Amino acid sequence: MTTIGAELFTHYATPQRDSQETIRHISDKLTQEPMLSWFDAVPMGMTVINKHRQIVHCNKAFQKLALKQRREDVIGLRPGEALNCVNSQLVKAGCGCSEFCHICGAAQAIIKSLEGTSDCKECRMVRLAHGSEEPLDLQVYTKPIEFEGKPMTLAFTIDISHELKLRYLNRTFHHGLINGVGGIATLSELIEADPQDSGLFQLLIESSQRTLRDVLYSRDVAAAEEGKLEPDFETFAAEPFFNKIIAKECALRNMQDNGVDILIKTKTLTSDKRLLGHVIRNMLSNALEASEGSPDTITLECNYLDDGRPSISMTNSGEIPSIIREQMFK
Fold it and tell me: φ and ψ at 79, to 5 degrees?
């Protein structure tokens, strides 16, 4: 049995592979196994993976998930390579060997299974599909098996992208709604106890507006995920737009807005004010949370790119933990 690639550099899993000749030999034998043909009736992706994490057999569902025309286009590849994961192309050794692969749930589950223990992990990847990058969230179940005395793993792969998005949307929506309605309820009780305190009425108005804003945000995100969001473009003055958002977000945290420097070089913007407001508030909220306890100033800048388009950036001194940095933009 010939192996190749043992000399290649790896950050995580072993780099060596079986030769294509060896892979084809095992794959041809597996196609003659009557039981494996039944897996083509299963609606989830199924792969048989050898000790070097190469696919030696797959069902039609996995072939479809991998966007491959033929089963032969999958055989011999590692799962990330078959699914066109962008990290599988970062190092010559391929899938499982980049600096990001140690946080990959699929790689973890496959390695654990090849060591003799069944596992189940979630895997979040960015892959190339139809000429562009797209996120893909998977649930990967693995179980150790043997074929002709050789250790292998049986892996079942389910696309859970929609489920995870729905889970996130529901959690975010409920969290915001509970906070908002809870604030309104508390203020209502205080007003009932002291109707003469006019300052409480302003707080009640602001809390109601904030709750409505959070509900609209959840509605817009849900519509965007369903491909039904229709932006309403208008042209408006840039500086008052940013000043208003910053003043409100800082007030919510009982902070002075002079902790945020505003550098606006664009006089006007053309956008959907509500959707752009969602983005800026999220950016500012993240920056404020990351800068808590820090004397450094947050900078919001709106400037022109070389091609004339406006660019909005937020800068703060907080550091993103490495485990989060490695999964950003997925």
Answer: -55, -45
At residue 142, φ and ψ (nearest 5 deg) are -130, 145
* Residue 325 pLDDT exceeds 80: no
Strand partners, 263: 301
CA distance 134 to 201: 46
Query: What is the C-alpha separation between 210 and 216, in angstroms, rounded?
Result: 10
137 and 9 in a common domain: yes
Residue at a domain's end among 205, 230, 255: 230
Residue 285 DSSP SS3? helix
Q: Is 142 inside a domain boundary? A: yes
State how many domains the chain has.
3
The crossing angle, in degrees rounded to 10, of helices 238-252 and 273-290 is 50
**Residue 34 structure tokens:** 């009557």
Q: What is the pLDDT of residue 258?
A: 67
Give 329 or 48, the one with higher predicted confidence.
48
Q: Do 246 and 116 share a domain, yes or no?
A: no
